[in-house]
Write a structure and sequence with these properties.
With about 280 residues, the chain is of the alpha/beta class. The chain has helices at about 15-30, 45-50, 60-70, 80-95, 115-130, 165-180, 200-210, 220-230, 240-255, and strands at about 5-10, 35-40, 95, 100-105, 135-140, 155-160, 185-195, 210-215. It binds adenosine-5'-triphosphate (ATP) and magnesium ion.
């Protein structure tokens, strides 16, 4: 089984988290599982949007677990590598598991000082955990700083969600540059219009940003109602216009993945130069 990782990014409030929740609904509805949702935003909105209360489920964020494992408990455990230690803790205390998807929150409390050990340990641990899934969806915070941490140093598709302002054009160009500079390997970088993106600007995106435009996410008052009420977007009716537009987006993303039976190991090889 090949794991496919899809990451959303974009400026604040463009609808990234909502989009990830609707992508999750699409993958669940099409039985494209096992599915892992990763909330990389310290504000942690994703869990609520898919109806999960991590605290009530007794789950901790990866940052909390890192801090507890490497700082508070300190020292080394003879015979157990740092990545195995954190991996075990994430499996046990971090990963929220349900029948249709699992969820992991990265959290906020990064350790002061030297990041090297936890970052390397975390990368190894996450690499091992994420291999178990067919699809991984990562919800990012606004801005681009997090990319430098390389939570995901190799992803299949990055979807940049554009906001209503012309600054979004600049953001897309800058995002590509930073992804390149941060050394993040990405198979395909695509752009989608967020719910507030003016549809008539769609035909300018490719010319002005050099990036592939996959269409626009519908503005859907039912989605806004659900979010306001804290209801899980996984329970939205299939007729929701936002859900349908995200489904079309996902079709276009997934269609580009070569059939698993035809693909060869090292699928990202030769495609890294799409960025930059
Ligand atoms: N398709 C949509 N139709 C209508 N309203 C939407 C849609 N998508 C998002 N919204 C509204 O926009 C607001 C912001 O959405 P969301 O939290 O998904 O954005 P974000 O980009 O993740 O924000 P942040 O940058 O703060 O993480 C939400 O309150 C939601 O109600
Ligand atoms: Mg968000």
């Amino acid at each position: 089984m090949q794991t496919r990782t899809i990451v959303t990014m974009g400026r604040g409030g463009t609808g990234k988290t909502t989009c990830v929740a609707l992508m999750a609904k699409y993958l669940i509805d099409t039985h494209s599982t096992p599915l892992l949702l990763v909330d990389a935003d310290p504000d942690q909105n994703l869990a609520e949007m898919v109806g999960v209360d991590l605290e009530a489920a007794g789950k901790m964020t990866v940052s909390e677990l890192l801090s507890e494992t490497f700082i508070q408990k300190g020292g080394t455990t003879v015979g157990v590598s740092p990545s195995a230690r954190i991996e075990n803790r994430i499996w046990e205390h971090g990963l929220f598991e349900s029948e249709s998807f699992d969820l992991l929150a990265v959290g906020t409390k990064w350790i002061e000082g030297c990041y090297c050990l936890p970052d390397a340990a975390l990368r190894n641990a996450l690499g091992s955990i994420t291999r178990q899934y067919r699809y991984i969806l990562i919800d990012s915070p606004a801005g681009l700083e997090h990319l430098n941490r390389k939570i995901a140093s190799s992803v299949d598709t990055i979807v940049d969600i554009m906001g209503p302002s012309s600054k979004s054009f600049y953001h897309v160009r800058r995002a590509r540059r930073i992804i390149h500079e941060a050394g993040i390997r990405c198979g395909r970088f695509v752009v989608a219009g967020g719910f507030a993106f003016p549809p008539d600007l769609g035909n300018r995106v490719t010319a002005e940003t050099g990036s592939e435009y996959l269409g626009k996410i519908s503005a859907d008052p039912v989605v806004a109602e659900y979010v306001l009420a804290g209801r899980s977007l996984l329970t939205l009716p299939d007729t929701s216009s936002a859900y349908r537009s995200v489904g079309e987006l996902m079709d276009r993303i997934i269609r580009a993945y070569p059939d698993d039976s035809l693909s060869t190991p090292g699928r990202n090889q030769g495609t890294d130069n799409l960025i930059g």
